[in-house]
Amino acid sequence: MFHTFPNKSKAQTSVSMEKTYSLTAHYDDFQEIKHGSRYSSSTLSNGMSLHLGGSLDRGSRGRSGRDKCVGGAGGGAGGGAPARWSRREICLLSALVFAAGMCVILGCMLALKFLSLEAQDSQCRQDCVKRRSLLRAARFVQGNVDPSVQPCYDFYSFACGGWLRRHGIPEDKLSYGIITAIGEQNQEKLQRLLQAPVQRKETDSAERKVKEFYRSCINMKEIDRLGAGPMTEVIDSCGGWDLSGAPPGGAGWDSGSAPVRPDFNEMLYKTQGVYSTSVFFSLTVSVDDKNSSRNAIRIDQEGLTLPERTLYLGQDEDSVKILASYKALMERLLSMLGAHNATLKSREILDLETRLANITVSEYDDQRKDISSMYNRITLKQLQKMAPSFHWKRLLDRIFSDNFSDEEEIVVLATDYMQTVSDIIKTTSKRVLHNYMLWRIVAALSEHLSTAFRSTIHDFSREIDGGERQLDLERLCLNQANKHFGMALGALFVQQHFSSSSRAKVQELVEDIKHSLDQRLQELDWMDEETRGAARAKLQHMMVMTGYPDFLLKPELIDEEYGFDVNEKTYFRNILNSIKYNIKLSVKKIQREVDKTTWLLPPQALNAYYLPNKNQMVFPAGILQPTLYDPEFPQSLNYGGIGAIIGHELTHGYDDWGGQYDRYGNLKQWWTEESYKKFQKKAECIVKLYENFTVYNQRVNGRLTLGENIADLGGLKLSFYVSFVRITVSVCSNSKCNKTRKLI
């Protein structure tokens, strides 16, 4: 509590009124408490001067005969004795001085009493807030548990039974849980923020842009009026289907003498460098895994439209069904976009994608988990020799607006794939290659077109994931605003829904759990001292980011993140402007050192993550929300909620993936051979543990899920260890809530 007091060092010559304010942690604004008056020692409120120990100026007063009698000789000019106080005046003066003194004493007593009452009132308010928080926490626990179940026999049903009874799975979702519920609450908050009037209306204002972008997205009347037009313009700029109508399979296609010369490398540039769409491979700028202080151009396998390569192989009934639906989707969209003979084109494109699927290694394969064996840093000259079907220097020069030398180093993560895909391109018609690349752009952008396109895509999505109901327009547009204006929207979110005090409390939780991990590392009997020292050093170097990046508190810095135009009437054009600007930002990174404080996700993201090549752990404000985290809840609940997630991300630094990187984020073997063998042996136990579980008649793949399982077990253990050591009292004492913090 803070108060303002008078400055007693300066004499006051007039009456002044001063307000005193109280500021508490539970109120957002100052609360006006009282008014106080201050007087100088020589001034009364009626303006009458009082001179103690001196004479009163009587020049303006007539004197009575009694005055003359008491005072001696008359008061002629220049003569007579000094005037004397009458007994009555002396009595009045004494009474006045006494009364003033009593007023001062009484005022001091009242001030002290007021301060005492104010302190008691503040304490009472704090106690009331604490009691309300405990009651809210108790209701939360009681509403979620099933007290009829014995926790020692079925802890899951005991802990979650009440919640499961009260909630079902909505039609538009495949699953539902506490995190999903928090996500819905966050989405409601974000939509209210987007629908609120613009406060900063400047041309470059990121707030104005994100809100105009959102309004352009929900303006389906204008989007439907434009129909396929925006996408048709993109297709025409790429040469059209079959490159301006050259007869499929006719003369000139493979020789390059078609009506419009089929330039494979020009189309490759447009897909990768203009529309940010991966064809045949991905091309990104990211942290160099073996030198985390620099960014590197990285090339990897990519180019499939379906989410998993096995879907192209038709190995089971579901895959065959999905593949048929995918071909039907392709035919339908190609027809809607003016492609002739869409059935033939879709079959040719699907055949090419299937060939790519056959040479693609699944992301779930063990081969893709061993980063060291995948990492290959080669020169541009070596890359050209490895995959000669691509004109690499021309492609990179155009995308990066630079002049690359043959000795420029590139990181390639899939060398076998790149060699084989180059061979596939040699043996495939240029027309098919062109139509495939054009289809990849269409597949990426068609969701931003009219209702007819969106309905067609939803029909296919229903076959893939089983969701019956299409997301409402507002929710779809919120997702797009998050994607294209994440930080701008995040700034609005943290201003309203995440305080700096919450941020500080989360940081305390993180430090507690880091300390818990450090203690556990010291206790591990299977880890030798060399590895233990490296593991503890990695923990000490680990960066922790909570809530939001600091630059979001400065609107002008947010504006710099979105240097492209937005118009309420041109949603599709807004999407293209965003894509092109983000390519520009990505290209600039190649000339700069890595900034390890940058965030991968915006602060409203309902997620947390650990980046091994930065040794960075991030907990956005979006996941630091009730009921995973509540600053007013007992710490036992916070440890069991966000604490387990903090421990989960910490543990990722030492699992089968994160454990390959050292304290600086470099891909380096810091384990001794003996300790790593013991780690692998213990990891094998976790593989076998999870393979004993069956979900929907399918056995869990313990090896595939190993990293997440290690993190889940480690996170829960670390969080429980902290809460068990620190907290032993009960949440509440009444018989209806007789649960210890340990159990909670």
From TrEMBL:
GO biological process: protein processing
Keywords, in A-Z order: Hydrolase, Membrane, Metal-binding, Metalloprotease, Protease, Transmembrane, Transmembrane helix, Zinc
Organism superkingdom: Eukaryota
Protein name stated in the entry: Endothelin converting enzyme-like 1
Residue intervals of the Peptidase M13 N-terminal domain: 151-549
Gene3D superfamilies: Collagenase (Catalytic Domain), Neutral endopeptidase , domain2
Domain Peptidase M13 C-terminal, first and last residues per copy: 607-721
GO (cellular component) term, any one: plasma membrane
GO molecular function, one term: metal ion binding
The keyword Membrane is annotated on this UniProt entry: yes
Lineage: Eukaryota, Metazoa, Chordata, Craniata, Vertebrata
Organism: Cyprinus carpio
SUPFAM superfamilies: Metalloproteases ('zincins'), catalytic domain (SSF55486)
Segments traversing the membrane: 90-115
A Pfam family assignment: Peptidase_M13
Cofactors that this protein relies on: Zn(2+)
